[in-house]
């Protein structure tokens, strides 16, 4: 994952970071405010609506229970039951009809809520068309709206419907009650009440309300406003419970979010339901969130302007420093940094100026060192004349020994010349293994001439290793150490040199049968670490190849010293090492 603080410009990161944080903060604040205020408004609205519906339910129940009681008392009136029994002659029956009609008419006149009364019976005596009291044939009961529920009950209410009257079609609610005397089914008394009066009660003082009045079976009796269909709201209310409550109905296809508040009372069979648009309730919360958003946007713009100004103030000195670093050149006309900063930028500028001063000093020092190096190289070239002069002198001494018949001395001078030539090797630090072995052979042969038959040696190296490269004069210090220190108290000695390839490394083993590390006559520490020559080889190997390659010295169990050297396999001299 890419770290933006390592890739993008600081001023942009500073600006955008503040912008994102502020916008996120405002969005969260607006949403939290909207959510909490919406919940509070919904709870408050549902509480007051429920209280209002309970009051309306109580008032409507009082009115409708009065109608039920009036219907009950009328159905038990002896004059009405005698009339329905139909045991009188025609004259008495006609006279009884008048009394019943008068009694029912008095109820209609006394109670303005009643629109009219219908009495269903066998063999009715027809009434005038304009009369509020109508005697109807029991066989026509199925035409009466809502009378079908009498099959399961002795009384019931109908839904709102239009009732034909002398004034025309009038919306009514009808209450039907069976008239039974001594288990005889005599007829049905139907009281029609004015639906507009109940509608006024249901509406209350809230114009534009959306309300429904339903019975205990969930049957919709009356509806005002734009209320839901019965199939949509009935599944959200438990009509078997007498508790009031509210529920949030989420939006579905073709509908909208709605708050449903309902009123159920212990002494009432009625359920009053009010529907309120969720959007209407939360409109003020949404308005509050919008205002918070507008204020937040203004605050964001103000803060972003301030952030932009601050980011410029922060990044300006950094840009000046970057420009000065990019344009810097030793001894050139460089960018001058401000000197009036006293904060962290001032420390940076001061540090940068001090660094430039040190660079200038270092550059001058390098120039002086370069001049000194050039002088040293010239002196080294001049010093090379001396080794060549000595090499030529050895050659002349060799010819003089030959002329004098000193064959052994001549051989020694010839071997020394070869060693001297390999030691020079045109100034190279790395030579082939073949040259290194030739050098050590010359040295050992010279020592044999000095020791006679007392010194023996063995050199083994695979032919495939001859062309590889090795640091110059790697073997000679160890062989010399064996002869000079290991054999100094002996009259004979043996030296073995074995080179082999071990994985990806060159493995060299040098062994002697001398006095060993502890009895060579030198201090163990000095012999273990080696003198100047061995220390020189150690330092060169460590400098060339690091700690992965090493030189170890240890005692042999049978006596003498064993040296192990691990070097890399080099098919050519390392670059920059010659």
From TrEMBL:
Transmembrane ranges, per UniProt, are 12-34, 291-310
Q: Where is the Histidine kinase/HSP90-like ATPase domain?
A: 475-569
Q: Name one GO cellular component term.
A: membrane
UniProt keyword terms in alphabetical order:
Kinase, Membrane, Transferase, Transmembrane, Transmembrane helix
Keyword Transmembrane helix included in the entry's annotation: yes
One Pfam family of this protein, by short name?
HATPase_c
- Carries keyword Transport? no
GO terms for MF: phosphorelay sensor kinase activity
InterPro entries assigned to the protein according to its UniProt record, in alphabetical order: Bact_2-comp_sensor_kinase (IPR050640), HATPase_C_sf (IPR036890), HATPase_dom (IPR003594), Sig_transdc_His_kin_internal (IPR010559)
Q: Which residues form the Signal transduction histidine kinase internal region domain?
A: 376-453
Q: What is this protein called?
A: Histidine kinase
């Amino acid at each position: 994952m890419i770290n933006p603080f390592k890739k993008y410009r600081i001023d942009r990161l500073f600006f955008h970071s503040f912008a994102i944080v502020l916008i996120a903060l405002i969005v969260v604040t607006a949403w939290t405010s909207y959510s909490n205020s919406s919940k509070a408004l919904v709870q408050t609205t549902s509480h007051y609506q429920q209280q209002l519906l309970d009051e309306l339910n109580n008032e409507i129940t009082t009115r409708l229970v009065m109608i039920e009681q009036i219907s009950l008392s009328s159905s038990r009136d002896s004059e009405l039951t005698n009339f329905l029994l139909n045991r009188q002659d025609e004259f008495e029956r006609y006279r009884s009809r008048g009394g019943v009609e008068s009694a029912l008419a008095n109820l209609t006149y006394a109670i303005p809520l009643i629109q009219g009364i219908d009495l269903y019976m066998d063999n009715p005596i027809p009434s005038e068309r304009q009369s509020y009291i109508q005697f109807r044939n029991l066989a026509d009961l199925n035409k009466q709206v809502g009378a079908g529920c009498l099959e399961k009950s002795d009384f019931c209410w109908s839904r709102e419907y239009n009732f034909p009257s002398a004034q025309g079609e009038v919306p009514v609610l009808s209450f039907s009650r069976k008239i039974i005397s001594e288990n005889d089914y005599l007829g049905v008394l139907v009281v029609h009440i004015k639906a507009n009066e109940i509608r006024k009660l249901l509406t209350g003082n809230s114009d534009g309300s959306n309300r429904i009045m339903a019975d205990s079976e969930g049957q919709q009796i009356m509806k005002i406003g734009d209320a839901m269909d019965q199939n949509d709201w009935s599944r959200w209310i438990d009509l078997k419970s007498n508790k009031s409550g509210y529920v949030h109905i989420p939006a579905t296809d073709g509908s909208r979010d709605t708050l449903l508040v309902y009123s159920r009372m212990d002494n009432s069979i009625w359920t009053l339901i009010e529907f309120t648009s969720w959007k209407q309730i939360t409109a003020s919360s949404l308005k509050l969130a919008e205002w918070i958003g507008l204020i937040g946007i203004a605050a964001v713009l103000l803060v972003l302007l301030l952030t932009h100004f601050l980011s410029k103030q922060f990044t300006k000195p950094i840009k000046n420093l970057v420009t000065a670093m990019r344009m810097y050149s030793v001894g050139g006309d460089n960018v001058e940094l401000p000197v009036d900063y006293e904060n962290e930028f001032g420390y940076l500028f001061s540090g940068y100026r001090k660094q430039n001063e040190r660079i200038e000093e270092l550059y001058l020092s390098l120039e002086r060192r370069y001049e000194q190096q050039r002088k040293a190289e010239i002196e080294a070239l001049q010093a090379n004349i001396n080794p060549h002069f000595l090499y030529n002198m050895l050659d002349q001494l060799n010819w003089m020994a030959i002329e004098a018949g000193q064959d052994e001395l001549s051989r020694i001078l010839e071997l020394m010349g070869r060693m001297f030539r390999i030691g020079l090797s045109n100034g190279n630090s790395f030579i082939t293994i073949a040259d290194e072995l030739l050098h050590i052979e010359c040295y050992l042969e010279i020592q044999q001439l000095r020791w006679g038959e007392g010194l023996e040696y063995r050199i083994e190296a695979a032919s495939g290793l001859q062309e590889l490269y090795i640091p110059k004069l790697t073997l000679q210090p160890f062989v010399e150490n064996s002869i000079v220190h290991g054999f100094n108290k002996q009259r004979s000695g043996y030296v073995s040199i074995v080179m082999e390839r071990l994985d990806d490394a060159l493995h060299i083993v040098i062994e002697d049968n001398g006095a060993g590390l502890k009895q060579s006559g030198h201090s163990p520490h000095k012999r273990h670490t080696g003198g100047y020559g061995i220390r020189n080889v150690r330092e060169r190997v460590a400098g060339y190849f690091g700690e992965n390659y090493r030189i170890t010295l240890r005692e042999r169990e049978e006596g003498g010293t064993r040296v192990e050297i691990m070097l890399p396999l080099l098919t050519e001299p390392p670059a920059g090492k010659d």
